[in-house]
Amino acid sequence: MDQAEILTVVRDHVRSCSLGESTGHDWWHVVRVASLAAKINQSAGGDPIKVELTALLHDVFDEKFYEGNVADALNALIDQLGVRAALSNEIWDGIIFDILHLGFKGGFDQTPLSLEGQIVQDADRLDAIGAIGIARAFAYGGAKDREIYNSDEEVVAVGTAAEYRSGSRHTINHFYEKLLLLRDRMNTPEGRAIAEQRHKYMEEFLAEFYREWEGE
Ligand code: ADP
Ligand code: NI
Q1: Structure pTM?
Q2: Residues in domain HD (predicted)?
């Protein structure tokens, strides 16, 4: 199996298991992350196959929803899809390592990632901010029966991982615990430039949101 074929097999599998997902890890999130990562990679110069495989597989077994061991599950999937022999074990292990550490789990995982992992982490973070990020946050909040905002509740900027997972705060709080922090966490210059614009858009959104909340 050549590298183009591996990508097709993995892409088809991920599409079939994530189409219609409603927790923010739907197929279109994966498509956006893969294409942003490819764009960032044009200047970052990582291995395009590793970038795309990491992007495609990064949310298949999310710790927020998957109870088992994520590395074991990814290894089993690689075998099940018949793509293992096409790349070295070192490459697969590197991809799995990056996936285990690139997500936000209530706090920022400081584990150093490979260049390709850093690129996908930037793309994943970019998809959590800006107009798309705002839409995803309210979609997630709605799926969890959360209020959009509650001006009687104090905004809590940083919670623990457990609080983040089980949290029942209003969705505007999520901007302060995560979304507004992402701009300063970008790994690549290209990612930082895109984040800057998306961050400004969220600040404008929040300013307008509060104006309207006050009945202006
Ligand atoms: P990622 O795909 O970036 O790893 P997560 O798995 O943390 O993101 O969450 C998926 C999406 O749901 C993201 O857009 C994220 O900002 C949003 N989300 C996660 N937790 C909350 C929350 N408590 N309130 C609102 N949105 C959330
Ligand atoms: Ni993601």
Answers
A1: 0.94
A2: 26-129
